[in-house]
């Protein structure tokens, strides 16, 4: 009901609408209307209230509230259900707990801040308050376990396309899932999954996108490698609009994946990549390999011509030489 109140206020943005009219249109008492207005004000919506004129929405807060993200969202699955936190340990951890309890596909856990944001290979992911896009998407693809890595690559293509179309920046993908702009990382993706025998039960795709971070928000030791859209564009961006765009891109690609498999996504990934044709070093848990990155396989592995012969990698850290 709070969302319905907001919807009407949004429609009349900048003009007053009376408590009486709101209560009649929504079929609730004026006291109930007033309570919803109070809650919205506490959440950061600037709503002016005047005795005889009613209520006027003047400003929406710069938070990734479900009500904001859903208004004008074109998807039918991704982001239709959103769980928002001002502060959480890790959105991936929460999404996995929800998935365990049977939460439906397309549900997104999103946070303004993570206190224990996790990166790949056990690293920490800096996630300061109100500045980035820290979210996790629950998927339930009906595929075999070995098709799961391709979902990470799908996510990377979705983010790169969203950045390109929303910000006009050339975003490139470093295998498997780092998004770079002008050689610096703006986004990382952490995919986690649960499989039962050989079939995937759920996949959680965690996306960390440095939207409005400023230089001082990054720890000093990563400032030469990481950047944000705000730094690149020299202006703050609308996180809400970018997330909506991302959900749209993600859903289109996911539908394509479900209908035609990984092959069309693989072609897109190859067009947007910055790894193939380069000399790379791959650090796996046990060894280090050097060679020329030549291709990605039908299931998303990186093919490298090394001194020891052709190798296919599904994990590890790749550095461009
Ligand atoms: C990487 O190492 O590049 C992957 C970073 C992934 C970070 C995101 S932020 C949202 C989600 N929750 C986490 O704890 N990690 C992922």
From TrEMBL:
Keyword Cell inner membrane: no
EC number: 6.3.4.15
Residue spans binding DNA: 19-38
Molecular-function annotations in GO: ATP binding; biotin--[biotin carboxyl-carrier protein] ligase activity; DNA binding; transferase activity
Any one GO biological process: protein lipoylation
Top EC class, one word: ligase
One GO location term (cellular component): cytoplasm
The keyword Ligase is assigned to this record: yes
Keyword annotations from UniProtKB, A to Z: ATP-binding, Biotin, DNA-binding, Ligase, Nucleotide-binding, Repressor, Transcription, Transcription regulation
Domain BPL/LPL catalytic: residue ranges: 67-258
Entry binding sites for biotin: 90-92, 114, 118-120, 185
TM helices/strands, residue ranges: none
Similarity section: Belongs to the biotin--protein ligase family.
Function of the protein: Acts both as a biotin--[acetyl-CoA-carboxylase] ligase and a repressor.
Protein's name in the database: Bifunctional ligase/repressor BirA
Organism this protein belongs to: Calderihabitans maritimus
Lineage: Bacteria, Bacillati, Bacillota, Clostridia, Neomoorellales
Gene: birA
């Amino acid at each position: 009901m709070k969302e319905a109140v907001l919807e009407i206020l949004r429609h009349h943005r900048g003009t007053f609408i009376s408590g009486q009219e709101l209560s009649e249109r929504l079929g609730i008492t004026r006291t109930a209307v007033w309570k919803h207005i109070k809650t919205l004000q506490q959440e950061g919506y600037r709503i002016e209230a005047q005795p005889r004129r009613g209520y006027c929405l003047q400003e929406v807060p710069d938070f990734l509230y479900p009500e904001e993200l859903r208004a004008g969202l074109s998807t039918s699955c991704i982001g239709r259900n959103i769980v928002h936190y001002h502060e959480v340990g890790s959105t991936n951890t929460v999404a996995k707990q929800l998935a365990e309890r049977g939460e439906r596909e397309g549900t997104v856990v999103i946070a303004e801040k993570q206190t224990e944001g996790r990166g790949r290979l056990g690293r920490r992911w800096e996630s300061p308050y109100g500045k980035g896009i820290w979210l996790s998407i629950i998927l339930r693809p009906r595929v075999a376990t070995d098709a799961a890595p391709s979902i990470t690559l799908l996510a990377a293509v979705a983010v790169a396309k969203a950045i390109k179309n929303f910000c006009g920046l050339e975003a490139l993908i470093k295998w498997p899932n780092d998004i770079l702009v002008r050689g610096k990382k703006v986004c990382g993706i952490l995919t986690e999954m649960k499989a039962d025998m050989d079939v995937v039960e759920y996949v959680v795709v965690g996306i960390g996108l440095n939207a409005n971070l400023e230089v001082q928000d990054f720890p000093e030791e990563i400032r030469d490698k990481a950047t944000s859209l705000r730094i690149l564009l020299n202006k703050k961006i609308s996180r809400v609009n970018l997330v909506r765009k991302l959900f749209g891109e993600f859903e289109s690609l996911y539908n394509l994946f479900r209908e035609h498999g990984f092959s069309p996504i693989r072609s897109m990934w190859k067009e947007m990549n910055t790894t193939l044709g380069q000399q790379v070093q791959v650090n796996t848990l046990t060894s280090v390999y050097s060679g020329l990155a030549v291709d990605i396989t039908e299931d998303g592995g990186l093919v490298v011509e090394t001194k020891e012969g052709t190798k296919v990698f599904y994990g590890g850290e790749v550095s461009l030489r």
